[in-house]
Design a protein that fits this description.
The chain is mostly helical. About 50% of the residues lie in helices and about 10% in strands.
């Protein structure tokens, strides 16, 4: 019988067969994780959760497989003792905010991908109108702000929109005057 355990809700296996610096004997139990969490600042843990979500989204966008060893080395670092909690919270955030689920595709090498958890839209649900498009833009902006720790400078938001090919100074075919839409309409709606 495999000693690998599945973490609830995240789709992540916590066994460490392929990770040199995080093996089965080092894996803390649930009660140890809870004790370790009590010793850590919730702000610090939440920051690691946000960093992990952002890391996973970037890897997914670039279509690069996500390796557990990379998550540990590049994001989790000194928080290995609360690894499972950080991954669980990141998994919940991905699911609730983006409709994505982290799925292990290679149990030997611990490689993961993000898959859509949303039902496929069919028929008349596919039609677009300006309100739906504006809501989509608003959700993208709010998600960006969330990923930046619930605060983002105007310049960072505009740069993010430019990367999405939504130019604030130009008239957009769907959104119209993007700068006015964001600074007036979205702000007025709070």
């Amino acid at each position: 019988m495999s000693q690998r355990k599945r973490s609830k809700g995240s789709g992540l296996s916590q066994g460490g067969d392929g990770d040199e610096d995080f093996n089965q004997s080092q894996m803390p139990t649930h009660s140890q994780v809870q004790r370790n969490l009590e010793r850590r600042s919730q702000d610090q843990v939440n920051q690691k959760v946000s960093e992990l979500v952002q890391f996973l989204l970037v890897k997914d966008q670039k279509k690069i497989p996500i390796k557990r060893a990379d998550m540990l080395k590049k994001v989790i670092r000194e928080y290995k003792d609360v690894y499972s909690e950080i991954v669980n919270r990141a998994g919940k955030t991905l699911q609730q905010v983006f409709g994505l689920q982290l799925v292990e595709i290679d149990t030997k090498h611990h490689i993961y991908i993000l898959t859509s958890d949303l039902p496929r839209a069919e028929g008349e649900n596919l039609h677009r109108d300006n309100q739906t498009a504006k809501l989509g833009l608003l959700l993208i902006i709010l998600s960006f702000i969330f990923m930046k720790g619930n605060t983002a400078k105007d310049g960072a938001v505009w740069e993010f929109l430019r990367r999405l090919r939504v130019q604030p100074g130009e008239r957009h075919e769907v959104f119209g005057d993007v700068k006015k839409l964001v600074t007036e309409e979205f702000v007025r709606q709070k």
